[in-house]
Amino acid sequence: MRTWSPARALAALAALASVLPAHAQTYSDPRGSGPILGAVYWVQGTLLGSIATAVAVVAIAVVGFMMLSGRMNWRYGLTVILGCFIIFGAAAIVGGIQEAARYAR
Fold this sequence. Notes:
This protein is mainly alpha-helical and about 100 residues long.
């Protein structure tokens, strides 16, 4: 059985957050997908909303203080900070990938 480390949890959240904005395509949504899209938008709002932003700010501040005081490994601390950047920058990352794929054709 695999154990979840904080880095794996952040990677899973980043993967989930990067998939959420992918609904903005040129075709219309299939019939009956309204409740599913509503749930996906709720998860997106929860992961990227004001509460999540406040928690991420506090987490980065605590991790930074622990790294500066020598209580945390720098590699682990940078992993947490990078994970926060990936989670909150997922929409921009996906947009960049979509633009690159559009011009590669």
